[in-house]
């Protein structure tokens, strides 16, 4: 029997779907999530990462009238701290340094 640690963090935010600004914002959130996923895969897959998977998702929920962003971290129970640390580091790197032109071209 195998067991793993899963941490799922979701943030819901009110969404007025009718405005172009909301569409533009939703598109940019999807770009940022894709860049972060690419960075995590490129940086840690060749190494022996402390996580099984780190997944990012963003979806608009018309029924609830909000957008939901979710970060899901999966690791072995003994590696949960390292897995969370990697996710936090990558979010901070994205916040501090933004997205490079090369990352946008590679998408």
Percentage of residues in strands: 25-35%
Rg, Cα atoms, Å = 15 Å
Number of continuous helical runs: 3
Q: Structural class, from secondary structure content?
A: alpha+beta
Largest sheet: 3 strands, antiparallel
Q: What is the 3D form?
A: flat
* Average of per-residue pLDDT values: 80
> Based on DSSP secondary structure assignment, what is the total number of beta strands?
3
Euclidean distance between termini CA atoms: 38 Å
Order of helices and strands: EHEEHH
Contiguous low-pLDDT stretches (5 residues minimum) are: none
Q: What strand order characterises the main sheet?
A: 1-3-2
Helicity range: 40-55%
Please render the helix and strand layout as text.
Elements: E1 5-14, H1 20-44, E2 53-61, E3 66-75, H2 80-97, H3 101-105
Antiparallel strand pairs: 1-3, 2-3
Key descriptive features of the protein:
three-stranded antiparallel sheet, 3 helices, 107 residues, alpha+beta, 3 strands
In a nutshell, what does this entry contain?
45% of the residues lie in helices and 27% in strands. The protein has three helices and three strands. A hairpin with a 4-residue loop joins strand 2 and strand 3.
Report on this model:
- This protein is of the alpha+beta class.
- It has helices at residues 20-44, 80-97, 101-105, and strands at 5-14, 53-61, 66-75.
- Strands 1-3-2 form a 3-stranded antiparallel β-sheet.
- Strand 2 and strand 3 form a beta hairpin.
- Helix 1 (20-44) packs across helix 2 (80-97).
- The chain starts with a strand and ends with a helix.
